[in-house]
Design a protein that fits this description.
single chain, alpha/beta, GMP Synthetase, Chain A, domain 3, eight-stranded mixed sheet, seven-stranded mixed sheet, 23% strand, binds adenosine-5'-monophosphate-propyl ester
Length: 641
């Protein structure tokens, strides 16, 4: 990659020099589902409960709720109390017998050239068969099922099959290594694990089964491993534990009853990194999650029945759950799943696929946009992009330069850019434009209808215009996480105690004079590397797993493409001295402990780390040091080996 092509990365103060608003085109507004976005938002915000109740009525319920919202046990809020549903009844069952059943539900392609299409009817049968297979393996309501798969149709089938029978799925991103996977499986107490023999990424074949075998060493809860045969080589199967997916599913009947779930029954657990080494197990439920995801999708993306939607997110992250799988299926439209990275073998792969499948909405992360931008405009041929009518961005702040490139080159100035701010914890979009409102490059605009967001100080007081503060959500919403699996107290402490009365997002933001919000990154030690969320503490634990390391501290550094990269400051044990080989070796340990996404770009060997009197590492000082600021009290930091 030519360094002169690298986009600038000025995100933090974008609001100061980017006040120009881009208006939607008249032809977009003419066809938009909601034309008067301001009036729509005002109505929703006047009576959010009525708004959410109306949104819930868009879905199928076996039994209606008795009460829309219950806050009698704050902050363990309940939505659609006593309502009975199942997200799968909404994703699949209700489409069967309608004209949607013959529509394509999933289009899948992989880097390795494999392809598959499933209609709603076919997907329905596949899900039913796996659901019956799971039942045969004695999986039922409330059991946890671990899923370790790349972005292949079986990932969607597995999630839906679990939900169908009331089991709770927990997907781990296939970029995580064995010990990270082990921690997650142990924490949730999974009874079964669904994986594949291999996965494909660029020209690499990942030996996923091997990672699973390593992760399960010493595990006592997993009784069976279901293995999707994705590659061609023989697979090492463990007797009495492992079963091939095909062998399990093939003989099963193609109908399976959908379990009637309470609105508040857990649907899935998804781990995410925070400020301590142990990731948090976020719990989402069948009812409110479905309502929030369905409503936000239809509204922010102006969904039409004819849409072909491509979210490049992997099912291992919340975007993959909410918007690659659940939302498009609830809406009865076509979703694209792509295994690998669609810039391989050439950077125009993504545009060719958009043309091939007539993709109308592309939803991706700024990192990928910047990477494509850096490859040069020659790859982005307008004739391949004709089907696109709307573009989305997610996962990290988008810098105005990348926004404008996306808007001009990919969107050809016709497609609104929907920059969606949200989190694993929020389940669905919190701050995102309505597609007919004026947009400002780099701003996620305003809170979604029915959501009340604010920028406040430590005491919860509203910050003045153009002053950075904590982003909070003032009122509960249906798709919010319900708890941390097994740790309700931690849930309360992390999200509701920092600023009493509000949901604490952990992000900083600025509100400009027009009420537009500008995200400024995290207030805590959570990094966003290529849009992937990873806590510095989790990386530090991986670094210190190396035998030579006495202590380590990790910070985030701005990175032109990835938004942020990790740098580790390492103090070695006596008897070890730094050299290139050791540096490589430590990186290998991180890869082994956590996976390739967490490998630090840089390691600096130092004699000591700056600490508070109580012994806490002061990462802020490390960041200042990195920025070249002169420091006091940095014992050992500047004394290199
Ligand atoms: O810092 C915010 C950033 O990603 C964090 C949530 O990460 P995760 O739970 O992995 O979910 C990512 C996908 C929703 C947030 O606290 N973030 C997410 N979307 C944006 C963003 N930062 C700026 N702009 C966004 N659109």
């Amino acid at each position: 990659m030519d360094a002169s092509n690298l986009p600038k990365l000025e995100i933090k103060n974008a609001y100061l020099h980017n006040q120009k608003a881009y208006k939607p085109t008249a032809s977009f507004v003419k066809k938009a589902n909601v034309k008067q976005w301001n009036a729509f938002r005002e109505k929703a915000n006047k009576d959010p409960l009525a708004y959410w109740e109306k949104a819930a009525k868009d879905l199928f319920w076996y039994m209606p709720w008795q009460k829309v919202f219950d806050d009698s046990e704050k902050p363990f809020y309940k939505w659609f109390v006593d309502g009975k549903t199942n997200i799968v009844a909404n994703c699949l069952d209700r489409h069967i017998g309608t004209e949607v059943e013959n529509k394509t539900a999933i289009i899948w392609e992989s880097d390795s050239g494999l392809k598959r299409k499933l209609t709603y009817k076919q997907l329905f049968y596949e899900v039913n068969k796996l659901a019956n297979g799971l039942k045969q393996l004695r999986i039922g309501k409330g059991d946890r099922v671990a899923i370790y798969l790349q972005n292949i149709p079986e990932a969607a089938i597995a999630m839906l099959a679990c939900a169908k029978i009331g089991a709770i799925h927990s997907v781990t991103y296939a970029g995580f290594a064995a010990s990270a996977l082990r921690k997650r499986i142990d924490d949730e107490g999974a009874k079964i694990l669904i994986t594949s023999d291999v996965g494909y990424r660029r020209d690499k074949e990942l030996d996923m089964k091997h990672i699973v075998d390593e992760a399960l060493q010493g595990n006592r809860t997993v009784q069976n491993v279901i293995v999707v045969q994705h590659g061609k080589k023989p697979v090492n199967m463990k007797k009495n534990r492992d079963v091939f997916y095909e062998a399990l599913v093939q003989p099963q009947p193609k109908y399976c009853d959908t379990e009637m779930m309470d609105a508040e029954d857990p649907l899935f657990i998804l781990f995410n990194s925070g400020t301590v080494e142990r990731p948090k197990a976020t719990v989402h439920v069948h009812g409110g999650y479905a309502v929030g995801v369905n409503q936000s999708f239809k509204l922010a993306f102006d969904i039409k029945d004819t849409d072909v939607f491509w979210s490049t997110a992997d099912p291992g992250w919340i975007t993959g759950h909410s918007y690659t799988i659940y939302a498009p299926l609830m809406a009865g439209i076509t979703t694209i799943m792509y295994e690998g990275v669609p810039d391989f073998p050439r950077p125009d792969k993504i545009w060719r696929l958009i043309n091939k499948y007539g993709v109308t909405i592309l939803y991706t992360a700024p990192t990928f946009i910047r990477a494509l931008m850096a490859q040069g405009d020659k790859w982005v041929k307008p004739e391949l992009l004709k089907s696109l009518r709307l573009l989305g961005s997610v996962g990290e702040p988008i810098n105005p330069e990348a926004w404008k490139w996306y808007y001009t080159k990919v969107g050809r100035k016709k497609c609104p850019i929907i920059d969606t701010w949200w989190q694993t914890e929020t389940g669905s979009f919190m701050i995102a434009p309505q597609p007919t409102m004026p947009l400002k490059p780099g701003s996620a605009t305003m809170a979604m209808p029915g959501i009340e967001a604010a920028v406040v100080d430590k005491k919860g007081r509203k910050m003045p215009v153009n002053k950075s503060g904590f982003l909070v959500i003032k009122k509960p919403w249906p798709s919010m996480m319900r708890t941390i699996w097994g740790e309700p107290q931690r849930f309360k402490e992390l999200y509701f105690e920092p600023i009493p009365g509000y949901y604490f997002t952990g992000d900083l933001a600025v509100r400009d004079k027009d009420g537009y919000l500008w995200m400024q990154g995290r207030t805590d030690d959570v990094l966003k590397i290529a849009g992937h969320r990873i806590g510095t503490a989790e990386i530090e634990a991986a670094v210190t797993a190396h035998k030579s390391v006495a202590e380590a501290a990790v910070i985030g550094k701005p990175h032109k493409i990835k938004g942020e990269s990790a740098k580790a400051f390492v103090v070695l044990k006596d008897g070890f001295s730094p050299d290139e080989k050791l540096e490589k070796d430590i990186k290998k340990t991180i890869r082994k402990q956590l996976g390739p996404i967490a490998v630090t770009d840089e390691i600096e060997f130092v004699k000591g780390l700056p600490k508070t009197r109580s012994g806490k590492v002061m990462r802020r000082l490390l960041k200042d040091h990195e920025a070249g600021k002169p420091l006091k009290n940095t014992t050992g930091l500047t004394e290199r080996h």
